[in-house]
Design a protein that fits this description.
Strand content: over 45%
Distance between the termini: 35 Å
Radius of gyration: 14 Å
Largest sheet: 8 strands, mixed
Protein name: MORN variant repeat protein
Number of domains: 1
Mean pLDDT: 94
Organism: Sebaldella termitidis (strain ATCC 33386 / NCTC 11300)
Low-confidence stretches: none
Number of strands: 11
Number of helices: 0
Strand order of the largest sheet: 1-5-6-7-8-9-10-11
Length: 109
């Protein structure tokens, strides 16, 4: 699987080409829809966020972290749409809230 690592402050358009498709922007690399793992890192090297890109769109689980490394958000995607459970955490690791998404619409708590 391809893997692309970038600084979280880097504009995504400076790394990928953006193509508007199906009402959303898809990521292209070398004129091809990107499929692989995308990892964004803080300046200190800690994980900011990571997940899978499939055919240019977010797919499956994505994790976003606080700069201290604690998980901030866990979310699921299908073709760039939120799909399934969405969990948000406080900096101390305790659950802050959760929602459930179907086709990008929240059906949450």
């Amino acid at each position: 699987m391809k893997e692309k690592r970038i600084n979280y402050q880097t504009l995504i358009g400076n790394v990928f080409e953006l193509k508007y498709m199906m009402g959303k922007y898809a990521l292209l690399l070398n004129n091809e829809l990107f499929s692989g793992k995308l990892i964004l890192e803080y300046d200190n090297g800690n994980l900011h966020s990571s997940g899978i890109i499939k055919n240019g769109f977010k797919h499956k689980e994505w994790i976003t972290c606080y700069e201290n490394g604690e998980v901030q958000i866990k979310e699921l995607f299908t073709a760039n749409l939120h799909q399934g459970e969405y969990l948000e955490y406080h900096k101390n690791g305790k659950l802050k809230g959760k929602s459930f998404f179907m086709f990008g619409d929240s059906h949450g708590e």
